[in-house]
Design a protein that fits this description.
This protein is α/β, with parallel strands linked by helices. It folds into two domains: 208 residues, DHBP synthase (Alpha-Beta Complex), CATH 3.90.870.10; 85 residues, Threonylcarbamoyl-AMP synthase, C-terminal domain (Rossmann fold), CATH 3.40.50.11030. The strands form three sheets. Strands 1-8-2-3-7-4-6-5-9-10-11 form an eleven-stranded mixed beta sheet, with helices on both faces. The protein has a four-stranded parallel beta sheet with strand order 12-17-14-16, covered by helices on one side. Strand 9 and strand 10 form a beta hairpin. Helix 1 packs across helix 5. About 2% of the residues have low confidence. The structure holds threonylcarbamoyladenylate and magnesium ion. Threonylcarbamoyladenylate binds next to strand 5 and strand 6.
């Protein structure tokens, strides 16, 4: 069904939200902005709709999805919160996903959780996501609205580039403010683990928890080992061009992804240059990361030289995504 549907792209108003909620109720797919990246949404309780979503993304079906809900009551209905989860829920609505034990009465279809006993839950902060969730009244599962293996979309045109003809409607809410996917923390029994660094810096999470956070991010060279957040395949964010990290010079024919005011680097002149943040601001850099990677890749260069980005704050998640973009491709 999703190959060859007519994709409508629409500005957001009350009518568009109402129409989008109807599409979800009918088992269709709606792409919508969240504060992190655009999501490809389906009715979490409808197995057929979720199957369509996997097909549209071209995503391996063992990869579980995040259930987006409108408030804590809905979140507590589908998952069990321990002490740590209760503390971290203070960041909601916001760029945080909690992986928690699924509640017995959880209405989310097994397909969406890939048969796991746990479920990923998030209350997004973006007004369009919130309006859609409120209007729809059920959980919405939404992976990032890109084809599997591509970088996450941070504006409506990115969504169209990947999913035109595969999604019924794209709600155009402009550029997403954070630009990186949510941070994912698993709170299961006594084990609290950071599964994916993301839009909420680790220091904020640790302050709320009152202790340091163990990292269980899938190793960059995971060599086929099942990652803990199963979607964290090393090549998950792969652009077409070769990515050369920590570059301190430009080689012939290369494009440059810069950070800070240090450019120009030594060496050749860049085929194309984009700066994540000239003033060295990591929040601005996160918001620009995926759109700059897309734009440099679209220029057709064979290689993109990436200048070093510091690891503090959102730099942890930025460096994680860059390392994945640079990792060798999987054949899947
Ligand atoms: O910011 C975001 O989180 C965006 C927006 C749309 O909300 N969504 C997003 O979804 O990034 P996705 O599907 O691209 O990434 C979700 C990650 C995947 O790596 C998946 O494997 C992991 O969450 N995940 C989902 N359920 C899980 C579970 N029960 N246990 C461990 N990891 C899980
Ligand atoms: Mg994704």
């Amino acid at each position: 069904m999703n190959r060859g549907v007519t994709t409508e792209i629409t500005k957001v108003d009350a009518r568009a939200i109402k129409a989008a909620a109807r599409i979800l109720r009918d088992g269709g797919l709606v792409a919508f902005p969240t504060e992190t990246v655009y999501g490809l949404g389906a009715d979490a309780t409808n197995g057929v709709a979720v199957a369509r979503l996997y097909a549209a993304k071209g995503r391996p079906s063992f990869n579980p999805l995040i259930a987006h809900v409108s408030d804590l009551i809905a979140a507590r209905h589908i998952a069990r919160f321990n002490d740590a989860a209760n503390r971290l829920a203070a960041f909601w609505p916001g760029p945080l996903t909690l992986v928690l034990p699924k509640n017995p009465g959880c209405p989310v279809t097994e397909l969406a959780t890939a048969g796991l006993e746990t479920i990923a839950v998030r209350i997004p902060a973006h007004p369009v996501a919130r309006d859609l969730l409120a209007r729809f009244g059920r959980p919405i599962v939404a992976p990032s609205a890109n084809r599997s293996g591509h970088v996450s979309p941070t504006d409506a045109q990115h969504v169209l580039a990947d999913l035109d003809g595969r999604v019924n409607v794209v709600l155009d809410g402009g550029s997403t403010p954070v630009g990186l996917e949510s941070s994912i923390v698993a709170c299961i029994d006594n084990s609290i683990q950071l599964l994916r660094p993301g839009g909420l810096p680790r220091a904020d999470l640790e302050r709320a928890l009152g202790h340091a956070l163990a990292v269980e991010v899938a190793a960059i060279n995971d060599g086929g080992e099942a990652p803990i957040a199963p979607g964290m395949l090393s090549s998950h964010y792969a652009p077409r061009a070769h990515i050369r990290l920590n570059a301190d010079c430009v080689r012939a024919g290369e494009a440059v992804l810069a950070f800070g005011a240090k450019y120009p680097l030594g060496g050749q002149e860049a085929a194309m240059l984009l700066n994540l943040s000239e003033r060295g601001d990591l929040v601005e850099a996160a918001a620009n990361l995926f759109s700059h990677l897309r734009a440099l890749d679209a220029s057709g260069v064979a290689s993109i030289a990436v200048m070093p980005v510091p690891f503090e704050g959102l730099g942890e998640a930025i460096n994680d995504r860059l390392a994945r973009a640079a990792a060798p491709r999987r054949s899947s």
